[in-house]
Amino acid sequence: MSIDLDELVERAKEGTVGKQEIAEVVRELASTEDESRAYRLLYVVGRSSATEHEDLVAGFLRGDDAELAKLALQTLCTFWGLTESYLDFVRAFLDGVSWDYSGDVQLIAASAAGEHLRDHTDTGLLARLVELAYPENDNPVLRRMALEALARGLGDPDRETLRAGGEDRDGWAARVLARAEDRLAAE
């Protein structure tokens, strides 16, 4: 049977992919060499909450394909809430890896770190996010992601974090950094 990926991706977003279909997707994902197809297959597995395939998904963290690693990290940490089991990868990717040319894996790691810090104490992750959030960081996208991750890690509501300071972006950033530094000092 041939997999209609376009249809499966749409149904994965809705949560209506069946177990048999997931089994077929997993079989193909484990054997495909087509990176574009692998990405979409991995997306279906991730959005379908097929956590029984955690090992297969985690295998993509160990490669050097940034797109697949980014989606695998997002699946494991964001979609499935398994960050605690993948903190070593979150830390490594937060520091940056040579094959993450566009920095997308690092951005997902920052987001995962922030979510993890909502309910956990981890001074190493917190310190690294603070470092990345300083104005001296010459990567404005990574700086913004680090600030938003810190805000989420400090418990700010998502709606405020997504608004990210509105008109007073610099003031908001300074307040987030000050609160994060206070938390770091207290931990």
UniProtKB/TrEMBL annotation:
It comes from the Bacteria. InterPro entries: ARM-like (IPR011989), ARM-type_fold (IPR016024). This is HEAT repeat protein. It comes from Saccharothrix xinjiangensis.
